[in-house]
Amino acid sequence: MLNRRKAIGMGGGFFAALALPAFPASAEAVAEIVMGGRVGGSHVWFDPVGLLVQPGQMVRWINRDPGNAHTATAYHPANSGKPNRIPPGAQPWDSGYLLPDESFSVKLTVPGVYDYFCIPHEQAGMVGRIIVGAPPTDGWQSASAADDGLPQAALQAFPAVEEIMAKGRVEPR
Amino acid sequence: MKKVSLLTATALLGGIAMASAQDAASTVTEAPPAAPYQKVSELAPLPDFIPGLGQLFVDPETLPAGPFLAYDHDGKLVSTVYMVPIEDLTPDKGFDDLVAPGGAVDHVDVHYNAGHPGVETPHAHIVLWHVSKDEEARVAQ
């Protein structure tokens, strides 16, 4: 477990490299998402909760919550049987638990809408949405099973695709 | 004679009970507490020291409610914490007879918590502080 944490923290992409092709990326291209939490743990969040990136852009999650561990985990059957909420052909990811100041990165290449969650905080609505390029009109969003098993707090926390497309970045509420 | 014996026995038993309580408290007043308590950061992926709570120990058999024993940076016990899932607060479920090994309680805090590894649903932290309000600062950071 210790080695795993260090690998994620140091490389910011060890596990991503296993799941997705690794490409060199300029520092400017990295889009950062902060995992945050209030002292005492009453409120937790991804910031931004909604983000628009370009195909092939690196996305990096970093845990800035000093009192908690978080994950960035794609909604996909490969992750504990969750419903699929990433584009067809895209690779799912799971950061594993990130302790304070640890990070994890993935490169998202397939255009579409990607929804993800934090394993210990899904019930509390700690979820996020990334749009790569422009959202397709016939993605997973049209599948009736996409909401199966998701807690109401999570379903209510996803920012609208239209809002992300309009703003490029949506702050947590 | 019988009365004296009864009084003696009562005093003896009372003394033993008091000594047992003191022994129990003394085994947890400094970190690490005796088995079956284990460090929470070795049971779940959590920071070793949690700001606002301290360094936590728990008997895994008592999860999720606890009690969790919380220590400051010098290894001194500051609080006993119970973590009660909100979904378990129903007409048909309760948490009875939770042990309180930490001794005298100065004051109590009750807070909502969104969850964390080990207790991955929203729950209430019930914090039995064994130190004064001012001394909570010992585990603030």
Query: Which chains make the largest contact?
Result: A-B, 22 and 19 residues
- Please report the distance between the alpha carbons of the first and last residues of chain B: 60 Å
Cα separation of the termini of chain A: 33 Å
Query: Which residue ranges of chain B are poorly predicted, with pLDDT under 50 across at least 5 consecutive positions?
Result: 6-21
- How many separate domains of chain A? 1
N-to-C SSE series of chain A?
HHEEEEEEEEHHE
Q: In which order are the strands of the major sheet of chain B placed? A: 1-2-3-4-6-5
User: Mind telling me which CATH architecture of chain A this is?
Assistant: Sandwich
Signal peptide (chain A): 1-27
InterPro entries (chain A): BlueCu_1 (IPR000923), BlueCu_1_BS (IPR028871), Cupredoxin (IPR008972), ET_Amicyanin (IPR052721), TAT_signal (IPR006311)
Pfam families (chain A): Copper-bind (PF00127)
Protein name (chain A): Plastocyanin/azurin family copper-binding protein
Question: How are the SSEs placed, and which strands pair?
Answer:
The complex is a heterodimer of chains A (173) and B (141).
Chain A: H1 2-11, H2 14-19, E1 31-37, E2 44-47, E3 50-53, E4 57-63, E5 73-74, E6 103-108, E7 112-117, E8 127-132, H3 152-155, H4 161-167, E9 169-170
Parallel strand pairs in A: 1-4, 3-8
Antiparallel strand pairs in A: 1-2, 3-9, 4-6, 5-7, 7-8
Chain B: H1 2-26, E1 38-39, H2 40-43, E2 55-58, E3 68-71, E4 77-85, E5 107-113, E6 123-129
Antiparallel strand pairs in B: 1-2, 2-3, 3-4, 4-6, 5-6
